[in-house]
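From the pipeline queue, job 12 of 40. The input is one protein chain; the requested action is below.

Action: predict structure.
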Amino acid sequence: MPDSQIKPGDKSKALSMAMGIVVVLIFTWGVIQIASTLPEGYRIALVAFGVFLLLYAGTIIGLHTQHTRQNAAHAAVIESRSQRIAELMFQLQTVEKELEQSKLAFQERLNQQRLAFAMEMENRAEALTQKPSFATHFGMPITPGVPTSPPIGTHWGTMDENE
């Protein structure tokens, strides 16, 4: 298989498998050498103990491999989540910038509307001082210091209730 198709964990997995096979072969050779020098009863016990150790070591290696794979899977999940979090943080920053720009644009429009309203109120106030009022329209000029409403108890321009 070309190197471009080998996944990063495949080389270490193959290397650990090869090392495991070498260890088992050396262990088996050692047990056979020791067993050949012992009497028959001890030989059977030694071979049984050696098989037990090989099975135990195989179980430990298998569990270790399983945990390694699980850890690699967890690492992949964590990496993908980290990438997703980074993407979301970037989107959040973009939205914050857009929100700030919208806020500034809204503030500018609000200030323009306030200015237009203030100018309109100023124009109306100026127009009220220049135009004739309702009272002067009906022949009652407004003189500074003179009240524009009728004195209390009198009715200007209305009929008396007793009439």
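Job complete. The chain has a mean pLDDT of 78.
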